[in-house]
Specification:
2 copies of one chain form a homodimer. Chain A has 17 helices and 19 strands. Chain A is of the alpha+beta class and 466 residues long. Chains A and B meet through strand 9, helix 8, strand 11, helix 9 and helix 11 of A and strand 9, helix 8, strand 11, helix 9 and helix 11 of B.
């Protein structure tokens, strides 16, 4: 079934009674609560669930899933609602399981550099908790998302180039399966060759195979020294070539972000800065004081070879915060270019050797189609975002945006890239899944889905058609 | 079915004819060839396949798998036969697909730091090929294994602490499924959130879900500077505490290996060295000359705080090679302690906070049970090996070894570790799978196996009982 064929039926009164008995006033059917839980931060149409369950334990999730399985009722897990492909919309109604009250940090293992948390813990909450330990959790998708949600969408962000994505940083998950059984996908060892990689099966499964209730993730020592720099380039190509050579040289850069000319206009205006309007790289270096200085000197030299002449330091923590706040506000800065409009978020990722070509062709498309769109990229990974602004009432603009996205994804796929580097498939990219992976691979995904969730109750209508 | 219930039937003549027609003299039924392909480097009893197919292309693998599926005949992929848990034994007979002639390096992407190879390419062959590019492939399990085999067993080795395991370093796989369909698990982008993680599903699946025929793996720039060091410690605990603090401090050590007293005796004798007989760490540092020097100074200081006073450098490439050759020969050095004996390889991995305790208890078991066994460990990952020597004819010794392994695995599991850090489950550790993961998780693994290989023809009798 897919979004268009999903049938929506009201919750059975018997199910509702049982849920109420289980959760008391932690079950809500209030219209406002349901509406809030049926939408994320994307342009996708909201679909409210029939009820929202604010759970406190894995056992409660088990009880809910068992009841829903009995009644063949959809179950949608909800973290903070910051996904970007309509992941939480209750396309066929059902019960939303809100994880936000499962927000206990269960166990920090300082010597092992890992932590066990409930799925509703957010990344900022975790880092706040870790403040005095000398450790931190690096993955930073921008939003203050829940760790369960980040695992479910295989999130990453600005420092994946150094620390990896959720794929590399989840050690183990506790998952409630579609029939209410609970599994723990792995133990706490750093590596294991014991059986199929169940952890990675659920990381990125977008709630379609089970509900993640707890997770163990890796932590890192807070670097002794951090420094940041900004550097404008004569062209996208020279900026990307700088990145390629930096990575080939083994410089363990912690962040390396590309902002195009339009994005620099937007952040200068929004964040009241006066950066040069040119393709620009933001860098962050982590290490010892000497190591960070050496890394930055090498990168500065590489940038110089590529025509960049204004490598600017941001060594104080204030200057650094200001710089990265501007980067984090890039999306809001872009939206502010045309107040009242929305952004149609895109997320392609290509081999870095094709990145400059891909970004430049995208800029030409933006101009040609008369769109207003800025580009920012996690350029060390070959991943970039552009979110053309739109007015949902303007049919012509929507058409041009659809044509733009079609070209963008087609180009990324032609360059051996992916339609989504970190946002996930959700509803929005289901149509690209087969073009990206081929019919046999998508059929294998459907086989996995059917064998693990035969009733299709786990977040139905998302990712893969069954 | 499991090893004991697998029924062995002779190959159907019709199947044999079709295979001969397909492969000509690249199909062998010679006893010596079949015998060679039914054993690996472990103590497990060999089981020869009925025929060995030396394939040249994915298309040939497809044709063989389709024929075998028609005749419900087992298919066992074979790389270099260096696995350690009886992975390649043809427990129910069938056709062995020898990948060694699929050994072309198809495409090196210098700017993207990746390479596409056929599954039969070995790691040394790849690094030889890369010699003039400035890049290298780091994963080093000791043996010169094929990359397809390394992916299938989720191999790692001495430098996983810095570069990760095959899990982190495989970008994409071409896999022939049990019905002959071919999938490509991912494209060439560094990261992707597009659908279930099929790559990781097949990495570590030990040939039980499909035959890997091609793979894309990550490459790294050869570090500008490499240095190595050896350091003896007053105790296992002080050595492990040094490792913990090194990693907490964010030192990107490339290799950090623990050898216990007995292992030092063995390598001194075997490799004609004169290292102090004490718990010892071998280090390797990768980076810029200044970075490497700084890393080593910090580690030396940490070691000093833990009572180590003879931190010795091996900066020349000769001294380094000698040191690491000794480490690579550790297993042969141990075997030479009692010529003619075999080693019963073990492979537990525990959270590093429990490692010293685990190693020390294991040493006590070795003494108590009157076994001859040395210990070496990839200590940055919490993974260590001990291979008690045995004479297969000595029933009493075998019994003591079984009891030893039982205690070792039980202890690792009690410490939240795994029964196998890098060797895999194969035949030898199937009995531990449920104790490690629980019944529900193992049942999920069996569900995956049944849904992807419903006829149970892919390497039957290994990893998970179906």
């Amino acid at each position: 079934m897919n979004a268009s064929t999903l049938r929506r039926e009201p919750l059975e009164p018997l199910l509702l009674d049982s849920l109420r008995q289980l959760l008391g006033d932690r079950l809500s059917t209030a219209a406002a609560v349901c509406a809030h839980h049926g939408r994320d931060e994307s342009y996708h149409a909201p679909h409210a669930p029939d009820a929202v369950a604010f759970v406190h334990s894995t056992e409660e999730v088990v009880a809910i899933v068992k009841l829903c399985a009995e009644h063949k009722t959809p179950v949608i897990a909800f973290g903070t609602g910051t996904s970007l492909e309509g992941h939480v919309a209750a396309l066929a109604g059902g019960v939303c399981i809100d994880m936000s009250q499962m927000n206990r940090i269960l166990r920090v293992n300082l010597e092992d550099l890992d932590v066990l948390v409930e799925a509703g813990v957010t990344r900022k909450q975790l880092n706040e908790h870790l403040r005095d330990t000398g450790l931190f959790f690096p993955i930073d998708p921008g939003a203050d998302a829940s760790l369960g949600g980040m695992a479910a969408t295989r999130a990453s962000g600005t420092n994946a180039v150094r620390y990896g994505t959720m794929r590399e940083n989840v050690l183990a998950l506790t998952v409630v399966l579609a029939d209410g059984r609970v599994i723990r996908t792995a133990r706490r060892a750093r590596k294991s060759a014991a059986g199929y990689d169940l952890t990675r099966l659920f990381v990125g499964s977008e709630g379609t195979l089970g509900v993640i209730t707890e997770l163990a993730v890796r932590l890192y020592g807070i670097p002794e020294a951090i420094s940041a720099a900004v550097c404008a380039f004569p062209s996208i190509e020279s900026a990307v070539d700088t990145v390629i050579l930096t990575i080939q040289s083994g410089i363990p850069v912690a962040r390396i972000e590309l902002l195009d000319e339009s994005q620099m206009v937007a952040i200068n205006r929004y964040s009241k800065l006066d950066h040069k309007v040119a393709p620009t790289l933001f860098f962050e270096f982590h290490g010892t004081p000497a190591g960070v200085a050496e890394q930055a000197e090498i990168v500065k030299a590489i940038a110089g070879e590529h025509g960049a002449d204004d490598f600017q330091w941001a060594t104080t923590s204030e200057a650094r915060s200001k710089l990265w706040q501007a980067r984090h506000d890039a999306y809001y800065a872009a939206l502010a270019l045309r107040p009242g409009s929305k952004g149609f978020a895109t997320d392609v990722c290509v081999p870095i050797s094709r990145l400059a070509e891909c970004v430049e062709a995208t800029q030409r498309d933006i101009a040609e189609l008369g769109l207003l769109a800025t580009i920012v990229g996690h350029v060390g990974d070959g991943n970039f975002h552009t979110a053309p602004l739109f007015d949902p009432e303007d049919r012509d603009e929507m058409k041009r945006i659809e044509s733009f996205v079609e070209r963008l994804v087609g180009r990324a796929l032609a360059m051996e890239g992916t339609c989504t580097g970190e946002h996930g498939i959700g509803q929005g990219k289901m149509k690209y899944l087969e073009r990206e992976h081929g019919a046999a691979a998508v059929e294998l995904m459907a086989t996995l889905k059917r064998s693990i969730d035969p009733l299709n109750i786990m977040n139905p209508g998302k990712m893969v058609q069954v």
